[in-house]
Amino acid sequence: MKIVGIQSSPRGKQSNTLKLLDAALNGALEVGAEGEAIDVTKLNIKYCTACDSCHETGVCSIKDDFNVVLKKLLAADGLIWSSPNYIKNVTAQLKTLFDRSPLIVHEQLFDGKYGFSLTTAGSGEVDFVLDIMNNYMINCGGIVIGGVGCAIAQGPSALLAAIEKSQEMGKDLVEAIKKKRQYPEQEDAHKAWRERFKYVLIANKDHWMHNCDYWAEKGWIQE
Length: 223
Fold this sequence. Notes:
Layout: E1 2-7, H1 16-30, E2 34-39, H2 53-57, H3 66-75, E3 78-82, H4 92-99, H5 102-106, E4 114-121, H6 127-139, E5 143-151, H7 156-179, H8 184-203, H9 209-218
Parallel strand pairs: 1-2, 1-3, 3-4, 4-5
């Protein structure tokens, strides 16, 4: 079993959010999973240009590090997203990665994968950023088991508690994957989204050939 964690704080080793991610990956390792952290702040990931190449061919036309990251994400069983709160949002580096994901969204390529999110903030505003990352996972077809946030202003004890909780959630992620844990509300949301989005595909069938072929193979749409 492979767990991939995404690190997106520009502070690198000084990042409090990275401490949560390291703990989560260590938790997954303790119960037998393989783990890998990817620091997107050190990669060359360019902005999406909405060229539609991924919808037409299944391949992004931009030649950079995103395609390498994508392969690792798709090969993983579990995904851990992490970002500090930057003005009630994820960092620009993580947002750029998200923006390069229309193929993942359109083809629900995280279907069958489980994940969760981690964040830190100077104040107590952590849920909003956790929701951004978790909603991304769900929008890509994946299942979310929860999240851990820490308000740094609450002091060292709060960070220590968040680190411990992150480690336990890393273990729980492995357990969820092993048991193929069910989350009916999220699964219903996936079905509802596919039912709506199929009409978008039909309207673009002459251009989004790869998307339509993929949906037909999955049995989500009739050619």
